[in-house]
Amino acid sequence: MEAALGDYLGLRRALGHKLDEHERQLTRFVARLDAAGATFVSMAGTLAFVFDPDLDPASSNPAKRLMAVRGFTRYLSAIDPRTEVPPAGLVSCRPSRRAPYLFSDEDVAAVVRAARASASFAFRAETLASLVVLLAVTGMRVGEALRVDCCDVDWDQAVIKVRGAKFGKGRDVVVSGSTVDALASYRSRRDSRRPATARLFVSLAGTPVIYSGFSLAFRQAVLAAGVGAEGPARPRVHDLRHSFAVRTLLGWYRAGLDVEALLPRLSTYLGHREPRFTYRYLTATPELLGHAAARLEATQAVIR
């Protein structure tokens, strides 16, 4: 079954899917079946895994576990007819999407100050602060920023080439001259402390920064800065991406620009597969909803 899992993941990734979380879930699932001596996937084995209350918190969402297992069993059923595919509606309550925290410029500045003040070593502080700034001013995904190599930055033209993006879709991200200058300053300080490396953002040991380590350091900086303290949950690092998109849309509306015509441009910049994935940002704030409603009313008036 382990070999079948490898084939399944390879096939899905060839179609452009990342499946990192699915791989973690399914590796755990297959290991449990092997340990139990199961020769095929039964409904009982699936239910025991999907609703296991003893799994660690990172994998405690039954809906996500079911989604991963169901995709794998649909693939397996074409190979082994004994495979029992769980129904799609087995877990009916779908978790609601948590509203993102929208960082203001002052919030970002406070987090950067906290990052520089709280890190144990100056180099770690600069790495954390530089990453926060880059994410805030570009809306890049965290994984994309962590994978940036020095050669991916066109230091003269102020363009960052994003590789290994979601769905395998690379793109060029244009940044300001001040952003490039800040990255160049970080790289200079980095190279003065250890031999130059291909990866732009590295740890104290000179190895690439990993997501979990950066995410933890970011949460600590947010806590120290007191940002979002009055809310029901602390801001997440991915909220920087939401904030960039909302800030861009608000700027266009306030300038009286044709947002409908510009939305595909923002979609491409953010690396969305289709513009429809960018439309959800229009509901992020009351002001954006108001602008969108006003534009819709104006369009309907013209049609009438």
Automatic annotation (TrEMBL):
GO terms for molecular function: DNA binding. GO terms for biological process: DNA integration; DNA recombination. Keywords: DNA recombination. Pfam families: Phage_integrase. Coiled coil: none annotated. The keyword Translocase does not apply. Residues 98-294 form the Tyr recombinase domain. InterPro entries: DNA_brk_join_enz, Integrase-like_cat_sf, Integrase_catalytic, Tyrosine_recombinase_XerCD. It comes from the Bacteria. Signal peptide: none annotated. This is Tyrosine-type recombinase/integrase.
